[in-house]
Design goal:
heterodimer, A: mainly beta, 11 strands, 0% helix, globular, B: mainly beta, 4-stranded antiparallel β-sheet
Chain lengths: 107, 115
């Protein structure tokens, strides 16, 4: 299986600042990468697919970039509702696999 | 607005069968993929498998032989069955619309495997 490695495990950010989450694939996945937002007790939310395509309704402060094995999710000007866990997923090969998640919390 | 809701027993005994149902509202079951994903405590998300409205299924090789899914369009529901469970199957189980990208998710249901 393709292993997805995220860093850092936890990111402490002040409201209004930017946050950058990294995701590395163990082999080339081209742009077959999605980002999800997870909050306790809530349904996870798909933010970005195909590495950089924002889902309809997701605010433009969320952006994704990268291809091959290195990917980045950037959240600019963090709002209170953005403090959550972010998880990447590759869907280049079966089975789809996920990173361990990055918790973005309040500094 | 698409909504999904998992339901089923929260406690299953080792060696027994885990069964969960996902009820869908706001979307047609037809021409869609329906997925199951789980998150064991302290670990990342793990893909379980999917069922397409045509009946096509595929599962994570790590679970093949123990897992199956079914779909009941008349009830707007799809289901997960996992046999011979162990403590390692303790997790929050999510259902979702879409595969392999999951566009919409349920809130998740905690299933604990314990005697």
């Amino acid at each position: 299986d393709i292993v997805m490695t995220q860093s850092p495990a936890t990111l402490s950010v002040s409201p209004g600042e930017s946050a950058t989450v990294s995701c590395r694939a163990s082999r080339n996945i081209h742009i077959y990468l999605a980002w999800y937002q997870l909050k306790p007790g809530q349904a996870p939310r798909l933010l970005i697919h195909d590495a950089s395509t924002r889902v309809t309704g997701i605010p433009p402060r969320f952006s994704g970039s990268g291809s091959g094995t290195e990917f980045t999710l950037t959240i600019s000007s963090l709002q209170s509702e953005d403090f959550a866990v972010y998880c990447c997923q590759q869907y280049k090969e079966w089975p789809p696999t996920f990173g361990q998640g990055t918790k973005v919390d309040v500094k | 607005q698409v909504q999904l809701q998992e339901s089923g027993p929260g406690l299953v005994k080792p060696s027994e069968t885990l069964s969960l149902t996902c009820t869908v509202s706001g979307a047609s079951m037809t021409n869609n993929y329906w997925s199951w994903i789980r998150k064991p405590p302290g670990k990342g998300l793990e893909w379980i498998g999917y069922i397409h409205s045509s009946g096509t299924t595929d599962y994570n090789p790590s679970l093949r032989g123990r897992v199956s899914t079914s779909l009941d369009s008349s009830r707007n529901q799809f289901s997960l069955t996992l046999i011979s469970v162990t403590a390692a199957d303790t997790a929050v189980y999510f259902c979702g619309k879409g595969s392999p990208r999951v566009e919409f998710w349920g809130q998740g249901a905690l299933v604990t495997v314990s005697s």
